[in-house]
Write a structure and sequence with these properties.
- It is a single chain.
- This protein is of the alpha/beta class.
- It has a single domain (2-148), classed as Diaminopimelate Epimerase, Chain A, domain 1, CATH 3.10.310.
- Helix content is 53%, strand content 13%.
- It has 8 helices and 4 strands.
- The chain has helices spanning 2-8, 13-18, 21-35, 52-56, 61-71, 100-106, 108-123, 127-145; strands spanning 41-47, 82-88, 93-98, 161-162.
- The protein has a 4-stranded mixed β-sheet, with helices on both faces.
- Strand 2 (82-88) and strand 3 form a beta hairpin.
- Residues 27-140 form the TPM domain.
């Protein structure tokens, strides 16, 4: 019941407070700079809280992240190297969903480590720094496993998504 109330009364303006335009622009720049050196694609999505019916069904942040991964077509890259960073503010939960190409090379432990690092920054109120640090960590993994070649198309938008 507490979770349901937290989600239903999570004000949308908190997304704008923690992620104002200049912060979202900085995240977009960081993603663009990152993608210039590897063949991966990074998306960042933030959501204040879940809607009533998903909450009543007990939808987890992970389940919602998988939905968003699909909706944003993060899986739709040539090298199967798309990565979604999903933040559910009401739960202060970060979920990283990676396409099969990069996930096979990295595995759950690394994604969990990056998620926990970001969540710790968010607990300290350092939202911008937490996201940028997460992007940096993911970029290092993508560079290691999918370094850029001569042709490096930008397959997905770099702009953060506020749901």
């Amino acid at each position: 019941m507490v979770r349901i109330l937290r989600h239903l009364f999570m004000p949308y303006f908190l997304v704008k407070r923690y992620f104002p335009r200049h912060v979202l622009a900085g995240i977009e720049r960081a993603i663009g700079e990152s993608e210039a050196v590897h063949l991966g694609e990074i998306r960042f999505a933030v959501e204040a809280g879940l809607d009533f019916w998903p909450l009543m069904r007990g939808q987890s942040a992970r389940e919602r992240a998988l939905e968003v991964f699909s909706q944003l077509r993060v899986w739709d890259t040539e090298h199967n190297s798309g990565v979604l960073i999903y933040l559910l503010l009401a739960d202060r939960d970060v979920e990283i969903v990676a396409d099969r190409g990069i996930h096979a090379k990295v595995g759950d432990a690394q994604w969990q480590r990056i998620s926990r690092m970001m969540e710790e920054a968010f607990r300290q109120g350092r939202f911008e720094q937490g996201v940028l640090a997460g992007i940096g960590e993911i970029s290092a993994l993508l560079l290691q496993h999918f370094p850029a070649g001569e042709v490096n198309p930008d397959e997905l938008p770099d702009r953060p998504v506020v749901l």
